[in-house]
Amino acid sequence: MNKETIQRRLPIIAVVLTLSYFAYHAYPRASDSRGFNFHEFGMIPVIDGGRYKPIQSVAQNALMVITHRSSYYDYETSKRHPATKWLLDAQTTPLPNADDLRELFPINAEKKPSWSQKVFRIENDELLRFLDLKHREGLRYSLTEILGDGKKWPEFVQHAQEVRSKDPKTLSLFDGKVHELATHLQLAFQLASHTLPLSIPNPDGSDQWSMFRSSHEEFGEKLDKLPATPDAKTYAALRKLFVAYDQVNVRNFNEALAAHLAELRTESPANMRSVRVEVFFNDFAPFYRCLEIYAILALIGGLTWFPSEWSRSLKNAAMAAMATTFVFHLFGLVVRMYLQDRMFVFVTNLYSSAVFIGLGCAFVCIIAELIFKNGIALVIGNVTGFCSLIIAHMLSMSGDTLEMMQAVLDTNFWLATHVTCITLGYTAAFVAGFMGIAYIMLGLFTNKLRGEGSANLTRMTYGVLCTGMFLSFVGTVLGGLWADYSWGRFWGWDPKENGALLIVIWIALILHARWGGMAKHRGIAVLSVLGIIVTSWSWFGTNFLGVGLHSYGFRQGAMVSLMMIDFGFLAIAGMGLIPLRIWTSFRLQSHASAVGTRPNPTL
Prior knowledge:
This protein is mainly alpha-helical. Helix content is about 65%, strand content about 5%.
């Protein structure tokens, strides 16, 4: 195969490789007949956080909160295990005060107790010194290490109780980390003591399920005379599983598990279908896969900016792979909507807004690249897609991303109209801002903006800004109508409302500056970069204030991180004010001005 043929077929090769990557991660895992079937165990349905879900989701969400990973890594054996194994270890190793469970699960000396597993992430040096722990690679510690010789534990518990009574916004960094560790320990204790999740259905078929521990107190002494009710049958099945796992009896565990799941599929096929979809979604992790592909394509797209005989082929291949990744990105959102039973509602919480913004950025940049074909939108789309999914990944560390909706938000109509529209407005503002960053960086350090390059990039930015202006304005008006419907007033100067209005005002300022001739190409780029700061404040900042009707949670330390990122964008905007004679793309024009030729007045 000659070089021309390879170049012509490179987009097809890129699509095949991208599809193969997604197919590899989407392929269902085969049951392991030689060991415990942890994957199938994850399909057992429970209720946690107010919603019906597989127990795999409970295990993964808990591990994400505690250790910032969705699986358990054993540092002693250097092996990675599924989250369901960690959960089973915890639920069959009673805590010292769990006397009612100790009889059911006597500690097996041949099996390491779960509290010796290094899962609790502690990165604060002051807290490590307080607990007499040494800094180690990985920053993960076990419950045994945290308890130590028992001398520091009462002091830690007392301090955690004092911190809990304080306003979260007034906590010092040390106090915040104490509260965080105490919360993680409490979650682990609840799982180990079988107070979470709710795993036993009520006999009347209602969604008010109960915990395994309470059922054990009710049925534990009359196993031979259990009633033929759903709660009794589920308790007996789970008891068999836990006892078999505690006794390291692989055959009994897998056989009891297969029988229990077969009965559940017969009794409630619709619910089990939803459970299987969620387990598939957890295993596939489509947004994390898209994140990885976006990062690779951003680097490949950057290579196309350097002229070579392969530039055009690489650009076409990257575009084809980006479009394929976009389809899987959209697929992930559709599956989320199915699991939440909210079709056409793309955004339900802060996490999903980050995922949706990444999807919107990719879509806008694909359209822009098809129109202008300069490779700039290709890179911007992949960079913004990657950044938004990184933000989503960080947000997933706070727990269940499919959490139940706040009561004030629980309306599909307004979620599908106002929230979608306003989030698309954020998307357009971010894309325009990153186009402004591209203008500044390409102008300063490359020749790519010479000739029509500067004008084309400004046209791209202008078109996105106009779209953002329309979406933000309509979304703000729809938000006012929703507020009038819910709270009886159209506008209340709430921080979230002010933030949405600021986006409209800022984009209007940029457009009027262009129409009035006050801002040329460079001015629009600089103002668009500053628009990222305005938009990030409306998107994130108002939620972190902890005040107002639109505040749905406060995250310790998040405001500091947001301010540091915004200072970075402010610095980039400042770079845009460097005199044009220093910019690589415009040095020739500056030289022409010096010898008497009029420079380009549009810059």
